[in-house]
Design a protein that fits this description.
Helix content: 40-55%
Number of helices: 2
Radius of gyration: 14 Å
Largest sheet: 2 strands, antiparallel
Structural class: mainly alpha
Shape: globular
Oligomer: single chain
Strand content: 5-15%
Distance between the termini: 27 Å
Number of strands: 2
């Protein structure tokens, strides 16, 4: 589903889109895998609650950026 406030970018090999709450398992995996995070200092997301909080945080930040782009505020 496309969102007017969040553009989707599609190529032959890639789809960039707004995160969904259903993405929490992959977010949890990526943010908790030691090899993936070897050089990145960030909190893990080993639980569903932490992963969902991360998704909400990113989506809120993206909304603020989009609002700034649209209004300058």
């Amino acid at each position: 589903m496309k969102n007017k406030n969040f553009p989707e970018i599609t190529t032959q090999r890639l789809l960039l889109r707004k995160l969904k709450t259903s993405d929490w398992e992959m977010i949890s995996y990526l943010r908790s895998d030691e090899k993936v995070n070897e050089f990145i200092k960030r909190p893990n997301a080993k639980s569903k609650e932490k992963a969902l909080a991360f998704v909400a945080k990113l989506n809120h930040s993206a909304l603020k950026v989009q609002r700034f782009i649209n209004t300058g505020d």
